[in-house]
Specification:
The protein has 467 residues and is of the alpha+beta class. Helix content is 39%, strand content 17%. The longest helix has 32 residues, at 55-86.
Length: 467
């Protein structure tokens, strides 16, 4: 038991410092400076003569003492960057509130539910959609514009954006959250490249400015600034104490009641997508998010949800100029990975191209419990001749028995019956999946609309569902 404890401490010691070296230039310079100066002090000590008899001996003494003092000072600077983490690095029990995972009845739910859309986004029709698994800001008018517009041009930023704060107290909080988050669960995290939003959605005449961010950047901003973390000693799990409060830096507008408009300085705002997935037989395809996931763990989700990889911008599918094509590529890639489509006896390129043709982007929303993270929603219908039902269980789990018999979705109006049954049987959909379903209910109401655009949207969705 003692050896296990020591190994755990050693693992924490190196993990904290590896993360600090990656994300804190102050720590890296301090640590490297301490090592170099300590080597200089050792070299000076080896060549010392006592008592000093020459001027060179005196200079060697001065050099050795100054190097030793400077090494200690550099070590102190580096240690301060990780001191908050080091105080509790032997604790194995971390408890997260918020950070993208909130539900009605949770202590933080009233905070997120009380946040209104920004003035700029409210002018675009955005309203608050608070439900039992989260809070979103949505706009039917903007979603309609998104579906009807000719294209959505974009451009990549030429220079990388730093997401680690230059302010010491915020930077230490970010590093601490990243350490705690990396200790959660058994799933290994990878620092993949993501697509960050750097421009505004308010002016459709402008090209949408996007940039490059890392997954860890999003953890240290979108999650860290929306979360509180507590811990308890190994021996006394019931004795929790708060060790981190990221809500102090949640991106609110100046009045303190509204979400800051996009883009938000210092926050990645990396895109994600949640697509309703309909099988070849017309049945809705659900799965359970793995419990090891902090976001939506254990909740029912559609089978094509996830964040946008930077590589989704550079594939051959689509025009390469319309950002909605990049969103569709994100959905298609997630479907291919999570639905076990590799098992089809077809070339990968053929599968992806067919999925791309059968996917539409239906809307956009901001996830309030993730610092206003921008997300898209969509709809994917599998071809009728793809007779299979599989799940890649790296992140999703099959639902062994659904609480009611699922029926085929042939028209968008069928989603109204599906939503009613989900509510009747108290099926808990993840926040993004529920927002995607909400959009289908809105489109179902467009059948007899006086607006030509709304009727066109209704017809587009029905054509996909009937194909």
């Amino acid at each position: 038991m003692q050896w296990g404890f020591l190994l755990e401490r050693l693992k924490n010691f190196y993990q904290v410092r590896i993360l600090a070296a990656r994300y804190s230039p102050r720590y890296l310079l301090g640590a490297l400076g301490a090592i170099v100066l300590l080597i200089g002090a050792v070299f000076g000590a080896v060549t010392l003569r006592f008592p000093p008899t020459t001027f060179l001996d005196i200079l060697t003494w001065i050099f050795t003492v100054l190097s030793l003092v400077s090494a200690v000072y550099s070590f102190v600077i580096a240690h301060r960057e990780v001191s908050d983490v080091e105080k509790i690095d032997s604790s194995r029990h971390f408890f997260f509130e918020g950070g993208g995972n909130v539900a009605a009845g949770d202590a933080l739910y009233p905070f997120f539910a009380g946040i209104e859309p920004s003035d700029a986004e409210q002018a675009l029709g955005f309203v608050k959609f608070a439900h039992k698994t989260g809070v979103a800001h949505v706009s039917d008018a903007y979603d309609n514009h998104l579906m009807l517009r000719k294209d959505m041009p974009f451009q990549k930023a030429s220079a990388p954006v730093p997401y680690v704060s230059p302010l010491p107290h915020i930077r230490k909080l970010q590093l601490a959250y990243l350490f705690y988050r990396s200790r959660l669960g058994k799933k290994r995290m990878t620092n993949d490249r993501k697509v960050a939003m750097l421009g505004s959605i308010a002016d459709s005449r402008q090209r949408l400015l996007i940039g490059d961010a890392r997954y860890f950047d999003s953890l240290m901003t979108q999650e860290a600034f929306s979360a509180r973390v507590s811990c308890s000693p190994v021996e006394q799990i019931a004795e929790k104490r708060q060790i981190l409060d990221g809500l102090r830096f949640y991106p609110l507008a100046e009045d303190g009641t509204r979400l800051a408009p996009l883009p938000v300085a210092g926050i990645t705002s990396h895109f994600g997508a949640a697509a309703i997935t309909i099988g070849s037989d017309g049945l809705p395809l659900f799965a359970l998010q793995g419990k090891e996931n902090l976001i939506s763990g254990g909740k029912v989700v559609w089978r094509a949800t996830g964040s946008m990889d930077y590589a989704d911008l550079n594939t051959a599918l689509g025009s390469g100029r319309d950002f909605r094509d990049a969103v569709k590529r994100n959905i298609v890639r997630e479907a291919y990975e999570e639905m076990g489509l590799k098992k089809l006896a077809l070339p990968r390129e053929t599968v992806l191209a067919e999925l791309f043709r059968r996917t539409i982007v239906t809307g956009f929303f901001r996830t309030v419990e993730r610092a206003g993270k921008p997300d898209f929603i969509g709809l994917l219908k599998l071809p009728k001749d793809w007779k299979f039902d599989s799940i890649d269980q790296k992140e999703l789990r099959p639902i062994k028995s659904f609480p009611f018999a699922l029926t085929p979705i042939r028209t968008v109006e069928d989603f109204v019956d599906l939503e009613a049954k989900l509510r009747e049987h108290d099926v808990t959909l993840a926040a993004s999946s529920l927002t995607a379903l909400r959009r289908m209910l809105v489109i179902a109401g467009y059948r007899d609309s006086d607006d030509e655009g709304e009727r066109a949207i209704h017809a587009t969705v029905n054509r996909l569902l009937g194909g």
